[in-house]
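Record type: ASSEMBLY
Status: queued
Input:
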Amino acid sequence: DTGVSQDPRHKITKRGQNVTFRCDPISEHNRLYWYRQTLGQGPEFLTYFQNEAQLEKSRLLSDRFSAERPKGSFSTLEIQRTEQGDSAMYLCASSQGTGKSYEQYFGPGTRLTVT
Amino acid sequence: AQSVTQLDSQVPVFEEAPVELRCNYSSSVSVYLFWYVQYPNQGLQLLLKYLSGSTLVKGINGFEAEFNKSQTSFHLRKPSVHISDTAEYFCAVRKISGGYNKLIFGAGTRLAVHP
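Status: finished
Output:
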């Protein structure tokens, strides 16, 4: 069990650029979640995958945001035409599909700064 | 809908003193309850969870929490804190059924342990 990994850990981009983040869940976990955490706040749910199917998206996820999990393993989160308001920590979590499915394991996050 | 209120944004305390971090939640359906800890520049780590049964739950690092259904509270306690407990603590809820396991977090409480 190597834990949830995220890449990159930090990203600085200029407003209007596109960025993509990657999340590798724990290998036997089929559920994957993305959250966004702004300064001084708790994480807010963005989207959820069960295997490769994206089953829920938050209203926070504007049409500039897209997430994929093409083979039910790693996931990517893309933000197009970034805005300063997108500056935040993007957290990925994964969980098992049965039994302890309530226990989500979080990665270290990707900190995005939009200048 | 569910919501979580963490009543203190910051809690300063001296080393070896007891501490209580307060959490209240609102939900029209039954929920599971969680406490997570976040150390600087790291992801979230599960401290403890309440699923059912005994209302007093014990977690890692000597923390415990008590679920009070009538007061819709889930306060976190530790009888004697260490410098290493300095971190951000998040209370979270999740619907027992439906909702795709998404966690709803409070805004966090920053625990600062002083020597």
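Annotation: Chain A has a mean pLDDT of 91.
Annotation: The first strand of chain A starts at residue 5 and ends at 7.
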